[in-house]
Amino acid sequence: MNLFEAIFVRKSVRNYTNDALSPQMMGDILKEFEEIKSLFGGIETELAIFDNRKGQYKMLGMMGVKAPYYLVLYSEEKDRALMNAGYLMEQMSLYLCTRGMGSCFVGSPLLKKKYQRRDNKKMMVVLAFGKAKGSCIRKQIEAKRHSLGELCVYKETPRQWMKQLLDAARMAPSSMNSQPWRFVVFDSRIHIFSKKHTNDRLGRWDELNFGIMFSHMMVVADELWLDVDLIRLDEISQKNFPNNKYVLSAILRP
Fold first, then answer.
1. Which of 78, 99, 130 marks a domain boundary?
2. C-alpha span between 118 and 17 (Å, rounded)
3. What is the CATH number of the domain that holds 72?
4. For 116-163, how does the pLDDT look when each residue is reduced to its tens digit (9 = 90+)?
5. Is residue 69 part of a domain?
6. What is the pTM assigned to this prediction?
7. 134, 146, 132, 65: which is closest to 104 by C-alpha?
8. pLDDT of residue 112
């Protein structure tokens, strides 16, 4: 299984064994992170592995998950840093799936202050992981996701590779399964919007959610040999939309 295949079968795992992982596996995980190219340049990040087999780290905040290990991503506090962090950590989640391990994003972890920063970097995202109790995968049809018909507006009939990319995007996990993304598709462009929330608690995680979704887009683009530029178009950003907020546009070149 590769990252592309993992997109469609990975699930969030909340129950783990307390089995130890080998030093080789730990090294492979850190090496994988070093090889991922950031979504946005100029943002320094650092990944740490917390061994929680003795239960010394309290990660049981909102959406918290007790796990034998946690991946903790530290990042500089810059524009779109949380989106970049979500992008990086979802690729790590997919990688863990390819190695037969489960993972789950942890919301608002209860960590002591000394763990919340590393030098000039702030803790941005925490991912619980380890050997799952049961399977770490499921059938695509079992995922509770909106259909492409609910998420997309097509200005013309999309090409097959465009539908593949959008299908991967809709499979992205999101906080409380909010699935905030909406897509307007025209030719080789995808204009990406965030659905406005009535609950501010959901909206505060949108930047992270979109980073996760962009990770799926980029993995598929790499699999299909597509070039993708993520840009913000002034002619769209200056418009006011009653139910959605403009995020970015993906310009694809097959």
1. 130
2. 29
3. 3.40.109.10
4. 888 899 999 999 999 999 999 999 999 999 999 999 999 888 899 999
5. yes
6. 0.93
7. 65
8. 67
Both structure tokens of 31: 């090496």
Q: Name which of 176, 241, 175, 186 is nearest 211 in CA terms.
A: 175
**Where a domain ends, among 83, 107, 130?**
130
Q: Is 204 part of any domain?
A: yes
Mean pLDDT of 8-36: 96
In terms of domains, do 162 and 234 share one? Answer: yes
Domain interval for residue 231 = 144-253
Structure tokens belonging to residue 78: 């810059």
Do 40 and 92 belong together in one domain?
yes
Are residues 164 and 80 both part of a single domain?
Answer: no
Alpha helices for 176-223 (secondary structure H): 200-203, 206-223
The domain tally of the chain equals: 2
Question: In angstroms, rounded to a whole number, what is the distance separating the alpha carbons of residues 145 and 164?
Answer: 15
What's the pLDDT at 111?
A: 65
Express each pLDDT in 49-97 by its tens digit. 999 999 877 665 545 688 999 999 999 999 999 999 999 999 999 999 9
8-state DSSP, 155: S
Q: Which residues of 26-65 are buried (b: 16+ CB within 10 A; e: fewer)?
A: eeebeebbeebeebeeebebebeebebeeeebebeeebbb
Query: Tens digits of per-residue pLDDT, 181-230?
Result: 999 999 899 999 999 877 666 567 899 999 999 999 999 999 999 999 99
Could you tell me if 130 and 93 are in contact, meaning their C-beta atoms sit under 8 angstroms apart? Answer: no
